[in-house]
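Team,

Forwarding the record for the chain on the shared tracking sheet. I've put the sequence and predicted structure together so nobody has to dig through attachments.
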Amino acid sequence: MRLTQQNRLGGVLGQFAYPLEKIFTTPDPSSPWPPDTGVPSILAFPEDPTRYLVLERTWVAGAGYKIHVYEATTRGATDVRDVDSLAGADVVPMRKKLIADFHDLGLSAVQNTEGMTWGPLLPTGERTLILVSDDNFADDEATQIVALAVG
């Protein structure tokens, strides 16, 4: 996957390879739905244009959702805007570090989380991160709002 940095007028400042996690398990073979994985939301740190939060969401039939939030940086990564294909290319991808695994948060359910935004600063100096899920208009899913503190 590629992350493209743009200025406020849409000019490309750089493009970087982002290492997306692999699908975590095999799907239920009786399901007509293939596994789905991707990055529904990326959020820049206001004070550092090289630092991002990346929301990775994976769904697998029979296993459900895996939701991870990573802190990632373009510092040290290769600018790949002139690289036609990343397959086999000698590039340094963005570095990333897991900061939240929704299965470790004690939630009643892990839902189809697809959006995130910054909330207010906390008295501790941390920033609030607000995440929201989409219920897909399905009876067995719910809209869920999660608030986390990010340092």
